[in-house]
Amino acid sequence: MAETIRYDTSDDPVVANEIAEKEAESLKIGEELMAKQENMLAGKYKSAEELETAYLELQKKLGETPASTAEDTAEEPAQEYEFYSEDGSVNYDTANEVYGEQLGNVFKNNDIDPFAMNKHFEENNGTLSDEMIDKLGAAGLNKELVESYLKGVRDELGFQPPQPTLSDAEVSEIKGIANGEEGYQSLMEWAANNLSKEDTKNYDDVLATGNKTAIKFAVKALMGQYEDANGRDSKIVTGKESPQESYRSMAEVVRDMNKPEYTQDQAFRDDVLRKLSTSNLKV
Fold first, then answer.
1. SS3 assignment, position 155
2. How many Å apart are CA 248 and CA 228, to the nearest integer?
3. Which residue of 21, 171, 219, 273 is surrounded by the most CB atoms within 10 Å?
4. Which of 83, 85, 132, 78 is nearest to 110 (CA)?
5. Would you say 113 and 90 are in contact if contact means Cβ atoms under 8 Å apart?
6. How much helix, strand and coil, in percent to the nearest 5, is found in the chain?
7. Residue 158: CB atoms within 10 Å
8. Would the pTM count as exceeding 0.70?
9. Which residues pair with residue 84 across a beta bridge?
10. Looking at the domain assignment, is residue 17 inside a domain?
11. Residue 282 confidence (pLDDT) above 70
C-alpha cells in the first residue's frame, strides 16, 4: 500500500504570510466602505431610514415642474401648413401629412378638397353640405361612416349641429291634423290651460327636434287628449263645426250610406244621422 503524506500549510511561513496579507487587504476595503457610508449618513441623515425618506422626496420633486421653469418655457408655435399650391390647386402633399397618406390618396384620386370641407365644417356648426357628403360617398366613404366620424369630431369640439327645418308644406300638413292654422292655434291654447308642465315640456322638446314624423305623432297624441276631454263629436278646437257637419246634397247622403262603415260602425251611422239632422235638403 502506498503511503499517504499530509502537508500542513499552516506550518509554512510563506503561505501564512500571503493569507495574512489578503485578509488585511479585505479588512481595509471593508473599513473604507463603512467609513464612506458613515460619513454619508453623518453628514446630513442620522439613519438609513432618513436617507431613504429624503431620496423619495427628491424623486417627487424631480417629477414636478417648477413654476419658474413653466413660466419661462415658451409655447411652441403651431405648425403651419400650405393647403393650396401657388396655382390654387389643392396641396395633396399637405393632405397626406394632415389626414394620412391613405385618406390623402382618396381625396386626390377623387378630386376632393378636404380643406374646403374642413372650412365648411367649422363655419356651419360641425356639418357638411349634402353635395360634400355625396362626393365622399362616391369616393367610397359611405354616408354612415362619414356621419359617425363627424359626430365624433363634433362631440370632441363641442359643436351642436343645427336641427332640421320643416318646409312650409310640412308645417301646413302638421297643422292640418288640427284642421288648419286656426285649429292648431286653438289646440295650443287648450294645451296651455290643460297640460301639466312636464307634458308641455315633452311636447316642446319634440317640436325642437324638427323631426316631421315625431311632431306629427305628438300633434295627433295631443288631439287625442283634447277629444278624450271634450268628446270626439264636440265642436272642433276652432269653435266651429267640423268640416262637412251637414250634407249639401242627397248624393252626399247616399255616398256615406253606401260606405262599408255605415253597416259596420255605429259611430259612423250616428255621424250620418247627426249631419242629416243639421242639413237643409230638398228631396
1. helix
2. 29
3. 219
4. 132
5. yes
6. 65, 0, 35
7. 7
8. no
9. 90
10. no
11. no
- The rounded distance, in Å, linking the Cα atoms of 236 and 244 is 12
Contact (CB, 8 A) for 213 and 221: no
Asked if 251 and 236 sit in the same domain, the reply is no
Instruction: Tell me, yes or no, whether 61 lies in a domain.
Output: no
Do residues 276 and 247 touch, judged by C-beta distance below 8 A? yes
Let me know whether 224 and 177 are in one domain. yes
Task: Decide if 117 is inside a domain.
Answer: yes
Letter for the amino acid at 263?
T
Range in 5-9, 20-24, 86-90, 214-218 the model is least confident about = 5-9
Return the amino acid letter for 250: M
- The CB density around residue 232, as the number of other CB atoms within 10 Å, is 12
How does pLDDT run across 188-199, given as a tens digit for each residue?
999 999 988 888
Q: Could you give the CA distance from residue 195 to residue 204 in angstroms, rounded to a whole number?
A: 12
Cα separations in angstroms, 188 against 81, 109, 211, 226, 269 = 55, 55, 19, 10, 31
Nearest residue to 243 via CA among 180, 199, 167: 180
What would the grid cell of residue 196 be? 301639466
Per-residue exposure over 247-270, b if at least 16 CB sit within 10 Å of its own CB, e if not? beeeebbeebeeeeeeeeeeebee
| C-alpha–C-alpha distance, residues 80 and 33, integer Å | 59
Q: In this structure, are 190 and 226 located in the same domain?
A: yes
- Say if residues 226 and 176 touch (Cβ distance below 8 Å): no
Count how many domains the chain has: 3
Q: Which residue has the cell 305623432?
A: 217
Last residue of a domain, one of 131, 157, 183: 157
